[in-house]
Structure formats: C-alpha cells, structure tokens
Amino acid sequence: MELLNQVTQFVISGLATGSIYALIGLSFAIIFNSTGIINFAQGEFVMLGGVLTIFSLNVLHLPLLAAILVAVAVTTVIGLVFERLAIRPLKNATPLMLIIITIGASILIRGLVMLLWGKDTQALPAFSGTDPISVAGATLLPQHLWIFGVTVLVIIGCRLFFNHTISGKAMRACSFNRRAANLVGISVGRMVLFSFVISAAVGALAGVIIAPLTMTAYDVGVMLGLKGFCAAIMGGMGSGLGTVLGGLILGTLESLGAGLISSGYKDAIAFFILLLILFIRPQGLFKKGETERV
Amino acid sequence: MRKMFAVIGITMLLLCSASAAFAAAPIKIGGLFAVTGPASFLGEPEKNTLELLVKEANAKGGINGSKIELFIYDTGGDATKAVQLANKLIKNDKVVAIIGPSTTGESMAVIPVAEKEQIPLVSCAAGIKITDPVKKWVFKTPANDHVAAEKILIQAEKLKQKNIALITVSDSFGSSGREQLKQMAAKRGFKIVADEVYSPKDTDMTPQLTKIKAAKPDAIICWGTNPGPAIITRNIQQLGIKTQVYQSHGVASKKYIELATAQAAEGIMLPAGKLAVFDLLKPSDPQAKLLKDYNTDYKKSYGVEASTFGGYAYDGFQLVAAAIRKGAATAAQIRDGIEKNGRMVGVSGIFKMTPTDHNGLDLGAFEMVRIVKGDWVIVK
To answer: Residue ranges of the Leucine-binding protein domain (chain B) (predicted)?
Structure first.
C-alpha cells in the first residue's frame, strides 16, 4: 500500500513535469515541421514567457492576465523578428547552418535578458493558490491542473489548425516538400514566418504557466529546451500527439527512475532512453522527409 | 644591427622597471571571479566588493602610502579559463596576491599555479579541500562546509532527532556538503535513513521527497543553492510533510524565503553567516559594527544589500591589506603576513590564521536561525 501510494505520486509528478516537456516539445515540432530546422532558441522563448510576465507584473504593475498576454505577445514579436533578421536573409542555407544560427540566437537572447533583468531567480505567484489537491493518496498543486489544461488546449488548437485550416495545411505541405508547395502557390517564406510566430507563442505560454512552479531566471531555457527537444524526438518530431506522448513518457520515466532506482541517475535515465530511441528509430530525427516520400 | 636593437630594447626595459620600482610603486592585486555564468551569484558581489574596498583604500591615500592597483578577470566559472587568467595575472600583470576564484572547482585548478609561482591565493570558495591539507600559498575566507554541517547536527542533537534524511544538489557544493554530513552524522551517532540527490536545474523534487517521506525521518537536511532548495521547500509543503527541515548556509538570504514563500518556509532552520542577521546581533558582538558598515557601504554603491558571498572577497582583501599594512610588499612577505595576522574580525567570522589552519574560522562563524513569518529569528 505504501509503495502503491509512492508510485502514484511518482506517476502524477512525472505526468506534471512531462506535460511541461510536451508543451515545449510541441513548439519544437511546429518549426521543424514547416522548415526542417531544430530551433535551439526554443528554450529561450520559454524563458522569455516567464521573465516577461514577472517583469510586467512587478515593474509595470499589470494585472496577471494582462501581464501574461503582454509576455506572450512580446515573445511572439521576438520570434517574428528573429525569423526576419536571422533566418529569412539566408536564402540557400543548409539546415545545419540554420540550426547553428538558432544556437547563436539563444546565447544572444540569454545574455540580453541577463543584462536587462539580472541573474536572480524569480517566482510568479500561483494562478489559483497553493493548497495541495489530493488524488488517490498522491498530491498535486492547482498549478499542475493549469499546466494539464493548457497543454490539452494547445494540442486541440494545433490539431484543428494543422488539419482544418488552409494556413495549417499549407504549413504541412511545406514540410513535406517545399518546392512542390511553392509550385502550387504557397508562399513558403510566409509559412516559415508563421511557424516561428506560433512556436514562439506556444513556448512563451509554456514559460508562463510553469513559472509559478519551477521559478524562472535568464538561464532556465537551456535545460527545459533540451528536455522539450527530447520529447519532440521521442515523438518523431511529427504529429502533435506523438510529441505529447514523448513528453509524458519522458517525465514519468524520469520521476519513476528518481523514485525507484536512484535520484542520482535521474537525467542519465532520461538521456539513455533518448539515445536508445535514436538508435532504434534514427529516422525520427533528420530523415523524416525521405521515409514519408516512400 | 638586430643584436644592437635587442640590447637597447633590453636596457630600456630594465630602466623602465627600475624607475617604476623607485617611485612609491603601487601594489598590484589580482581578482579572479565568476562574474558571469552559473556561479555569477558568487562572482558578481565578490567583484563589486573588491572594487569598492580598493576604491576606499586608495581614496585614503593607499595602504602605507602605496596605492593598490587592481586587476580583476571574469572566469565565467570555468576552471580552464581560471588557470589561464591566473597565469596572466601572475606573468603579465605581475600581481603579488590573488583573491578568488569563486568556486571550489576553479580554486582547485588554480592552486598548482599559485604554489608553483609562489603567489598567495586567497580563495573565496567554501570547499574543504582547498585548505585541507594545508598548502603553503593558499588561504580561504569562507567557513568550511563542515562547520555549517556540524552546526546543523548539533541543533538536531539538541532536539533529539536521530534519523535524518539528506537531499543534496549534485554539484560541487552539494556533494561536498553531502560528504561532510554523512561523515559527521556517523561520528555523532545519527542514522541516515534516506540519501537523495537532485540536479541544479531540476524543477520538481517530489519523487525524491516522496521517498524521503516513506523513510519517516525525524529531520530532513537539504544542501544546495537557489532555486533548488526553494522548490524543495514548496514540494515539501505540497506533499504535506511535517518533518523538521534544515537548510544549508547556501540559502541564507531573504531571496530564499521570497522564492519558497514565507508560508512554506515557516519553521525551517539553517546556519546563517552573521551578515544575513546583522541587525539581530547584540551590539556587543564584535562583528556587529563591521557588518553594518559593510552593508551600508555596499548598498550606497550598488543599490542592493550586501551578500555573504561578497563578504568572502571583503575578508580576502582585509587579510592581504593587513599584511601590507605591516610592511609586506612582495608575494612572500604577504603570504607570511596573512599567516601571522593573528585575530581579525571579518564578515564571515573572526579569523585566526595559523601555519596549520589556513581558514581560521570556527563554529562561531554561523548563527543558527529559524524562519518565522518570513523573517529570521536567532535560535537560542
């Protein structure tokens, strides 16, 4: 009974962390799907979401909802500017070059935030209190419900957008074959811009809803970005649902590993699984286009 | 022809250095701090403090009439860079003493350089390895981790808590604390019922704490620097664990209470450097005035409260300055001066350097405090 309660807690904690990874993974997948780029500045969008909300809340004294909207909007604009200034001008760049550019951008964004807002960790107040909720012998916080809720909404939103709107379908077309998409009259450039805008918004939203739990600072984006990237790879970088499952599996395994095996090997377990998946299904990463053309 | 140029060049160099030596030569001191990077919370206040102190000393006409010339480099918390910069300080800038580096890892890397070049190094890192065993040219100003660990265990002993659980961060600060706690707990007859770790960037420690909860300890000792311990404090509240929690001196700042929320941090005890509680000290405390002055000066120059970490550089400079005041000018004289300095009131405690103790602090460096309603209360 004791052990069962413990395992329930491990699973619930894991799912909560996992949905954070899933949300970040999703924002990776959105850009990858329309451009073939892994945007390593994705973690920075997450960080910007949290840091900007705290800034609007504490310095501009906006109410919470307005602060969140401002943070997501500003991050989205940063995503847009980033695409315009760093990605668009390079017409014939290889994906590898673009990936390296995103790494550069992430260092730049991190440095600027550090200079502007300092290095201190800051916390956002929880959206609806901190009284723990008890579920089957385990506890979770109201903020976890917010994370679950927002993740579900984002998944549904993505699904509707990519499968049922012209823009969404056009973005998917770009991911399958850019030239063909161009030939049928889709503006590939605009779709790439779109993908950065959506992805920055989703990333920022993730950053906002996790800030009350995990706190935020200029350097939180690195690890969160990496874990989100793992989630996306586990899901094959493709469909929304795969990435979400990837995130949840990663979070749960981390938590179970820390709880049942050894907390010292928590990250090792997660990255071991990532390596295993890359060995068994390497096509999940860069060669997706080829397998789907068959 | 070329040979002649070389001869002229060398002669001129010799003349220059000779004339520099005849004038009341400034004393060159180096600083190596992790001003950026993951340990910047240490390096930044250290650099600020050192700059402030040197400015003050020079405004008063220097020490014994010689001005201090300061060379500070940012190591970014990187041991390789720290070694390169230490060499640069010694060979290019010709400093006679180095204050820093900020972290234990960097200090251990720089120690061989200082020993080989025979330049006194006053480290601002807490790791016990730095001065144990004693190295001729190496000193350090933060109290050893084991002093804080001992303070916690003495308090636990007083409260008759026998079974303890550890949760420590997996960086050098945490693993050093974990080792010290385990060693000392064994010596004092404690039983460690859980021994968990977490990574510095982890965002949720409920799995570890669930395991600790099941082990039913009398006390939980957490060892880390923000934000980890703050997250742990919140997680403990979430899981409804009612056990007494001890934190390390690594979170002895108001920032920790703010991050963890006053409600979740209520009742937690920790050993704090006296700077964190200087306004609670008795006026008769020998450190009270110094701490207050340091905090006021720092606040006036940088607009924020002084931190314990800046205090490490403060004490480092005071040690070097005390040696210079007594007439030391060369690296070897400064080293001897620091060792024979005798009793000195500093920020981190009351130093008493000896040839066998290059740290010179004891249990008095910390004050056990409890968090009550978001503020510190000294535990009697």
So the answer is: 26-359
Q: Give the nearest partner residue to B201 out of A16, A223, A256, using CB atoms.
A: A223
Using CB atoms, pick whichever of B197, B207, B240 lies closest to residue A13: B207
Establish if A135 belongs to a structural domain.
Answer: no
Chain A touched by B40 (CB under 8 Å): yes
Domain count for chain A? 1
**pLDDT category, A230, cuts 50, 70, 90?**
confident
- Residues of A whose CB is below 8 A from B202: 266
- The SS3 assignment for A134 reads strand
Token code pair at residue B77? 């918390």
Q: Which residues of B touch A131 (CB under 8 A)?
A: none
Which of A16, A119, A264 has its CB closest to that of B204? A16
Q: Among A69-78, A126-135, A190-199, where is mean pLDDT lowest?
A: A126-135
What are the DSSP E strand ranges found in B249-306? 269-273
ipTM of the complex model: 0.83
Min distance B23 CA to chain A CA atoms (Å): 41
CATH architecture of B26-140+290-348: 3-Layer(aba) Sandwich (3.40)
Of B36, B214, B240, which is closest to A139 when you measure between CB atoms? B240
Does position B367 have pLDDT exceeding 80, yes or no?
yes
For residue A198, give its domain range. Answer: 2-123+141-293
Model confidence over A58-105: pLDDT tens digits?
888 899 999 999 999 999 999 999 999 988 888 777 878 888 899 999
* Nearest residue of chain B to residue A123 (CA atoms): B259
Order of all β-strands in the sheet with B68-74: B68-74, B27-33, B97-99, B121-123, B138-140
Domain locations in chain B? 26-140+290-348, 146-278+365-378
B199 contacts in chain A (CB < 8 Å): 266-267
CATH number (domain holding residue A25): 1.10.3470
The tens digit of pLDDT for each residue in B278-292 reads 888 888 889 999 999
Class of the domain covering B146-278+365-378: alpha beta
Q: Is residue A130 part of a domain?
A: no
Q: What is the pLDDT of residue A234?
A: 81
Of the candidates B340, B267, B348, B353, the residue with the CA atom closest to the CA atom of residue B307: B348
Contact B227 A121 (CB under 8 A): yes
Residues of A in contact with B40 (CB under 8 A): 119
* Mean pLDDT across B132-155: 91
User: Considering the domain boundaries, does residue A277 fall inside one?
Assistant: yes
- pTM for this prediction: 0.81
**Does any domain span residue A129?**
no
Interface check for B199 against chain A (CB to CB < 8 A): the answer is yes
